């Protein structure tokens, strides 16, 4: 119970902090709601007075004056409602903007481990659907959560003031209503939690399909993808339908309460009129107050339903905000990486932070600044896991990894990553011009510097042939350039950082061998002091390296030059025979 209360407090603290500069709007909206309710509650009282002292007594002058007051009250009520709605909408939109920004900024600090834990699709759902739910609930609460109880209280006070005995009808109906609402919400709440978890799966299916649409069409798997989507969509439909069916019981419950109260008050009130203890105007106002009281209760039930939905969303948002980031700077981080020397010392690594399921096991490897190191190995041998530790995308599970003579955990993360450039096989280009994409490596780079690195990356030639050269617009994901062109642009972007360490993770797989040889020569001639690590499928990509690391099953099987490994290492011999002696150029994954 204490833990549950602590979670609720933490949730409120996070949400309230997002009100920020919209506190004024948040305060003003309820004030005008209160004024709107006062006008509405006043109207039945004025109508009763008009009937009893104006209509029944034939006092036309009083009817005209009270008619004017009623019209003014209705207009003021409408005006106050418009003002409160405007401020509530502004407060809710600003609140959601701040919350969305808070979530986005938090995600920017996530490590790969944090993203893997929550999932990219889960983060998208939280940043869109969940925050929209909270925004809607916040806007409703600014109006309805003030309007409902105030209307309820004021209407009850006025009703008891008119006829205390007749007002006891409300007290008889309330327990029945409260029990019904409790049963509805307690049964619907778990279903909404399930729905939002499955929304993550739906998002994941859509994202995977859009990212891999070319593969889907190449394999003619459209029907399979449709079936997969329909399965998840159908699950959401069934859960949501079930939840909505339960929530829909709210309306008949309210209607039953309203009509029961009206019938009882009408019957008892009519008897009181006959007995002379109540006037016609008072009965009319009592019926009006009955409607207002039960409308207030209906609005309260709507709030409870919205809170039920938004609470599920809020918990998911707070999961992101409370997620402990596992990669942080040390207390006094080192801001400068002095060299590109790399040393793996008894390094073991697991994505699950457990020694029971290691991807890398007891790695010892020393790389000197300026060396070119090739890494070969089969699928699952740990090649990519190894290089991801160098820019500290993950932390080692055991052992230590030194860059420039210092443990990577001692560095300022940004300073370290600025000196380690990683180019992946499926690296990403963003929508914008080629220049804008390249300047991700250095936003201050001149046009001359852009041309220099593009020449190094063998990209300058094809860029010049494009319609607008370096100002050519790149579509999202680089869909309007070929795989080889995309890889060369990503290499140029990485070189623009002037890194101490350049890592190419199978990032020349889409270029021909001639272009690749030009790349290797350019690296050797133009950036001799940069440490170069090349993960490759083709043995020709690494055979000229200073040393080649052969990996197998998360361990280093051998280290040596091309000639040494060709003579002494079975794995390397098999790859060589398959690719070169066999006359192919496929290599291992």
From TrEMBL:
The chain crosses the membrane at residues 27-51, 63-89, 144-162, 168-185, 256-274, 286-307. Keywords: ATP-binding, Cell membrane, Membrane, Nucleotide-binding, Transmembrane, Transmembrane helix, Transport. Residues 27-307 form the ABC transmembrane type-1 domain. It holds the Pfam family ABC_membrane. Residues 342-578 form the ABC transporter domain. GO terms for cellular component: plasma membrane. GO terms for molecular function: ABC-type oligopeptide transporter activity; ATP binding; ATP hydrolysis activity. It is a multi-pass membrane protein. This is ABC transporter related. It comes from Natranaerobius thermophilus (strain ATCC BAA-1301 / DSM 18059 / JW/NM-WN-LF).
